[in-house]
Amino acid sequence: TQVFSAFVSALLAVPERPSAPDSLWDLSLGNAQPLLRRPHSHPCMCVTHVTLNGSVWYLVRYEHPSDSHMWWDLIIQCAVPVVELYRAHGVCNRVDAARYLVTRGMPFTTVFFPERRESVSLRPDVHAFLGWRQASATYTPYDYRAYEDHARYILRGGKARAALLLGGLVWRLALEIIGEPLLQEVLNGPSSDVYQFGQEYRPQRGDVVYDDKLTSEELEVICGVYKVEISKLVTPIPFIRSD
């Protein structure tokens, strides 16, 4: 993934439309849809670099009327979802792009700049964990139900959005617990919780932007991590599903 990201970054650094060979862009000689050859190039997708919190992200927008009034920006840190979107010619706005990514469990972020009259007052992270277990503990169906209850308590409002935005394993666990109907919450943009529990994204220049977030402790709860004390060293271990 790092090599792929570096490759896409090099192409995006060129002022004109990238002119690298199609086989290199797609990393496959047998690809039926080379990205840069007409009519396979995306008709309206635009990708630019942005630096947030010291990391390079891809900012995705669309030159299409349906994308002109969006209030949040779509940013992606991994190049793979960017290329997936570039192949999706039917996607012509950020809402459809977010729907495309979230239904596939691919990570992305939806940041926005609050209006001046809005007050952002981020609260300290709340520490949450499932508890302590002996290293020799045997887990039961009751333990799994207790885990689900803890995770369901966390996965509300903006926290549920943040879990789905992460993609991968956390996305899958969140869908099992809260269900697919909440996928729509991702498309609605950052929640009102972002003003107290959101995450800051600081650019090199300009205003700070925000999106919903999960703390590391909340991630551990969703992933079923219990804490075990071994020789006075605290070591988190994953909860093993009993079924």
Measured on Cα atoms, how large is the radius of gyration?
20 Å
Please write the string of helix (H) and strand (E) elements. Answer: HHEEEHHEHHHHHEEHEE
Main sheet: which strands, in order across? Answer: 1-2-3-4
The residue-averaged pLDDT reads 82
Please give the largest β-sheet.
4 strands, antiparallel
Parts with pLDDT < 50 across at least 5 consecutive residues: 20-24
Strand content: 15-25%
Which structural class matches the secondary elements?
Answer: alpha+beta
In one word, what is the shape?
A: globular
Helix content: 25-40%
- Number of helical regions: 10
Number of strands: 8
Give the distance, in angstroms, between the N- and C-terminal Cα atoms: 33 Å
Structural account:
It is a single chain. β1 (45-52) and β2 form a beta hairpin. The protein is 35% helix and 17% strand. The protein is α+β, with helices and mostly antiparallel strands. α6 packs across α7. The chain contains 10 helices and 8 strands. Strands 1-2-3-4 form a 4-stranded antiparallel beta sheet, covered by helices on one side. It has a two-stranded antiparallel sheet with strand order 5-6. The chain has a two-stranded antiparallel ribbon with strand order 7-8. The longest helix has 14 residues, at 141-154. The chain has helices at 2-12, 22-26, 79-87, 94-102, 141-154, 158-166, 168-178, 183-187, 194-197, 216-222; strands at 45-52, 55-62, 73-76, 109-111, 199-201, 209-211, 225-230, 233-238.
